[in-house]
Amino acid sequence: MVNVAIMGHGVVGSGVAEILINHRDRMSKAVKTEVNVKYILDLRDFDGLSYSDKFIKDFEIILNDNDVKVVAEVMGGVNPAYEFVKQCLENGKSVVTSNKELVAAKGAELIKIANENNVNFLFEASVGGGIPVLRPMVQCLCANEITEVAGILNGTTNFILNKMIVDNMDFNDALKLAQEKGYAEKDPTADIEGHDACRKICILAALAFGKHVYPEQVKTEGITNITLKDVESADTFGYVIKLIARTKKLQNGKIIASVRPTLVSRDCILSNVNGVFNAVMVNGDMTGEVVFYGKGAGKEATASAVVADILDCVKHLEARKYLDWCEGENDYVDQGFDEKQKLYVSVKSDDYNDIEKQIQNLFPQNENSFIKNQYGGEIVFITEPDFEKNTTAKLKQLKNCSYKTLQVIGG
Ligand code: HSE
Q: pTM (2 decimals)?
């Protein structure tokens, strides 16, 4: 029998406890030994559950119990999770986590501590919820040099955008629904401002390219500025708006990394990833594009990935799994890198005729094609491919108006 402890009994933690306890036989069969949940750490009281007797409030009990071999950290946040995980690893316990904030901030350090203490530190659930993506990327694609990873990595924002597109639902109502369904973070700002997707692309970039990427190095923009009008305009142009996270290796050894709301052409597979589903596209030099798809958030899906990591640790108490990377560097992420791309531009002005003339002067090559839509004093159009800094410099010349831009993929 192998004893495990679960730290945190929130949305994911309760899912992990329920799977391990309610499907105990299935778990035992998978690893050919009994997997026993010995403790569940949470400061709240959970009376009336079939496993209420397992709750403790003192972390030291887990830390000092040598019979606990595997610990699942599903509390979220960097503190106190970081100290707890670090101490468990140092005390010879393998740790699994769904905590992307922790892995994105401290992954390289915790992996090193795990290696030094001959235990495993696994975090499949930190990216893509229930989708197996980290392990397949590292193991099944190991014959490849990975050149690019891009995808939809946040279920909450994808759910919100989808509700706005399909049901014409207002942003705040859609967010409320995502919270009720258990998709959103405790503080949903992390979802809608893009921080959650940012943490996940940091983890994917680190695994793909071997060096830690810190969230503050990633250009991150959320979806709070997206309006129903943008959604409708995008649709008129043949695009869908998605929050796209992307990282790419450059020839000079550096990488680019970003999280941005993006108009995705209906031809692109990512345009059909709807609701809470995520998709991660990995480009390998041997395989070409590989896509991982499934539920990116939610209790059961995420708990499934945590439990799989727990079972992997149980099976490999004496063996090491190789999911690792080294510490990052200040200038590793290229901040100035610019690729030629189309931009969606939405310009607001009180004087529609004047702004139309100004736009036609600045973008004459598009004169007959670029203005596709008009809502009151708002003009939206898609530019020809150019470096973003060139398009932005032109837009800065516009007078008596405000504007916003979104990147465009495909089409
Ligand atoms: N809040 C996250 C999401 C949960 O919506 O994707 C899964 O990481």
A: 0.95
Question: What domains can you pick out in the chain, each with its CATH number?
Answer: 2-129+300-315 (3.40.50.720), 135-295 (3.30.360.10), 340-409 (3.30.70.1060)
What does 376-409 look like in DSSP terms, one character per residue?
A: TTEEEEEPPSEEHHHHHHHHHT--S-EEEEEEEE
Is 389 assigned a catalytic role? no
Tens-digit pLDDT profile for residues 316-345? 998 888 788 999 999 999 988 788 999 999
- Tokens 């397992």, residue? 54
Q: Is 288 exposed, middle or buried (0-12, 13-18, 19+ CB in 10 A)?
A: exposed
* 183 C-alpha to ligand 1 centroid (Å): 6
Substitution site in 74, 153, 195, 196 for ligand 1 pocket (most atoms within 8 Å of beta carbon): 196
Nearest CA to ligand 1 atom 1: 184
Ligand 1 centroid–CA 272 distance in Å is 19
Strands 68-73 and 94-97: parallel
Amino acid at 51: Y
